[in-house]
């Protein structure tokens, strides 16, 4: 088969990939422990591991164990949200063959925002807001699947998906108009919560298993099709003749990225820049091979959001900032630097 370098990695490449992923996994664990130790009441290493022992025994009796339980749940939620957004970003960039694509480019997050803000506007319970956000995102994804089915079937000979992108932009604009309408008629006592949700906020998030299941399932799928993504990226016009089922690959990438985006947005709101800058940073650091890029980006995205959320809750404590503000303040200069490096290359 052609492009054997992308299909059959050497032993040195596999060893390098394992070393990079092990480093990123250790960094993610360190970020979670750091987030658990830092706060208005700091925990020393001894207190942290003693409290962890209490949690493992199911008997959180001390103040340290109580603090650890609260912070650990938030840190794990931040990690899976960041990992989900980064993985969705890589998939969306591969699907659209556009380096500026991110998880929100097709309007899936706009559907989630419409559902969530409508639930907040009508004073629904917190779990109803999450369900409404997830349902809105899935509804938009199904609409895009119906309207842009030609692109998702691989009919475009150049490997791009112009109808899908255009349809997504239009749907996102419509969702944005509905969001603006709801914000304009919302009473003052609900407006603050609606704005925080739109910016992205982890202060009220709860540790749940569903986001982890969605992320792990999408990651397994992504790793299985990573070689096919490499081939499609280099030989989009001839991918089918090289043994790639372009239609199935595009549909799988779209559905997986839509499900990932729905999961992340319903959990923490619209947190920007994670799905854009993390994939680019990993490409600059370790190259464009999706067999390494996909797992590396998802681990780096989780670590990045954990650190950003730690800053959000500690930088002006006891007041907490929306984590989306922190990711934007970090993401704008980082992305500008990345663009400058790309131009110089």
Main β-sheet: number of strands, strand sense, barrel status? Answer: none
Q: From the alpha-carbon coordinates, what is the Rg to the nearest angstrom? A: 21 Å
**Ends apart, CA distance between termini:** 30 Å
CATH class equals Mainly Alpha
Taken together, the total number of domains comes to: 1
Shape: globular
Q: Count every beta strand, where a strand is a DSSP E run of 2 or more residues.
A: 0
CATH superfamily: ABC transporter involved in vitamin B12 uptake, BtuC
- Predict the CATH topology: ABC transporter involved in vitamin B12 uptake, BtuC
How many helices? The count is 15
Helix content: over 70%
Arithmetic mean pLDDT: 86
Proportion in β-strands: under 5%
> Which regions contain 5 or more consecutive residues with pLDDT less than 50?
1-6
CATH 2nd-level architecture: Orthogonal Bundle
Order of helices and strands, N to C? HHHHHHHHHHHHHHH
Alpha-beta classification: mainly alpha
Folded structure, characterized:
The protein is an all-alpha fold and 345 residues long. The protein has one domain (10-344): ABC transporter involved in vitamin B12 uptake, BtuC, CATH 1.10.3470. It is built from 15 helices and no strands. The radius of gyration is 21 Å and the shape is globular.
């Amino acid at each position: 088969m052609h492009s054997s370098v992308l299909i059959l990695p050497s032993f040195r490449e596999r060893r390098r990939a394992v070393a990079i992923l092990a480093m990123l996994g250790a960094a993610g664990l360190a970020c979670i422990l750091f987030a658990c130790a830092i706060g208005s009441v700091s925990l020393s290493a001894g207190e942290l591991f003693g409290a962890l022992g209490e949690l493992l025994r199911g008997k959180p009796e001390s103040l340290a164990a109580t603090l650890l339980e609260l912070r650990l749940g938030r840190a794990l939620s931040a990690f899976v949200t960041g990992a989900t957004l980064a993985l969705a970003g890589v998939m969306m960039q591969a699907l659209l063959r556009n380096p500026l694509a991110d998880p929100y480019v097709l309007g899936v997050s706009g559907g989630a925002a419409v559902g969530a803000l409508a639930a907040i506007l009508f004073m629904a319970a917190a779990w109803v807001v999450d369900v409404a956000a997830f349902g809105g995102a899935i509804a938009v994804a199904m609409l895009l699947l119906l309207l842009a089915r030609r692109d998702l079937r691989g009919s475009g000979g150049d490997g791009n998906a112009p109808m899908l992108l255009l349809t997504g932009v239009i749907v996102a604009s419509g969702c944005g108009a509905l969001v603006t309408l709801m914000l304009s008629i919302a009473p003052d006592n609900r407006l603050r919560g609606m704005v925080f949700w739109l910016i992205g906020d982890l202060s009220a998030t709860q540790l749940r298993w569903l986001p982890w299941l969605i992320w792990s399932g999408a990651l397994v799928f992504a790793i299985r099709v990573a070689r096919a993504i490499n081939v499609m990226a280099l030989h989009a016009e001839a991918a089918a003749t090289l043994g790639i089922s372009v239609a199935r690959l595009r549909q799988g990438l779209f559905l997986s990225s839509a499900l990932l985006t729905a999961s992340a947005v319903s959990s923490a709101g619209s947190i920007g820049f994670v799905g854009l800058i993390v994939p680019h940073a990993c490409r600059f650091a370790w190259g464009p091979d999706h067999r390494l890029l996909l797992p590396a980006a998802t681990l780096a995205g989780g670590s990045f959001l954990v650190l950003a959320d730690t800053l959000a809750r500690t930088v002006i404590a006891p007041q907490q900032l929306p984590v989306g503000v922190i990711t934007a303040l970090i993401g704008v200069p980082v992305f500008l630097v990345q663009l400058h490096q790309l131009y110089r290359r």
